Task: structure prediction
Amino acid sequence: MKKRFLRIVRTLFRGFGLGLELLMAFVWVYFALGFIGTAIPVGANGQKGSVELYVRNNGIHTEICMPASNETQDWFDFFSPEDYPEMESPWVNVGWGERDFYLSTPEWSDLTFYRVCHALMIPSPSAMHVAVVKEPATGMNCKRIRLTKQQYKKLTSFIKHSFDTVSDKPKIIPDAGYGERDQFYASPESYHCFHTCNHWTNCALKSADIRTSWIGFFAESNLVHLP
Result:
């Protein structure tokens, strides 16, 4: 009986050890792929267009800041007017992410290890975050880019297809915004470690042939190749 118990314990430890080795190997491959993919640029190198917008990075998350209205896209026609009491802001900041993570962490102090692991390891529902803002200042964490009207049309089409819509209007998540100048909307996509908030930004930039990294797992991946 004792020998049988010891064999079971040894088998469990071997299984645990193998699982840990596989997890470490996965993490190593994931980061290696991310770093290699970040180093390889794709997309057009020039910025000859008349439409200005910004790619913003808060350290772990990236978003795209666009004019609220121009001849190509009026975002306040796309969103419902009642969503934003203060609609005079000239810029719209848009990002995508894991729904529970977005709604449960309005401040970085609300971040927990469980939420990070859950968001990365388990395919989860996602959400779009939209905020009306002032024009941001450029710097290491905010790069200004110029697009042609055709590029901008492709970018806005990609972004609009990231929203769940009802009667051509984005499906709002009620009472989820952090304040009066932002809202959350449902998205049909699933969030997981290979499709993160930064990968979404990376795909958005690629859709318009904007210079970016081949693989965009990390926030810096989306700014490193911008001038």
About this structure: The mean pLDDT is 83. Residues 71 and 149 are 9 Å apart (CA to CA). The chain is about 35% helix and 25% strand.
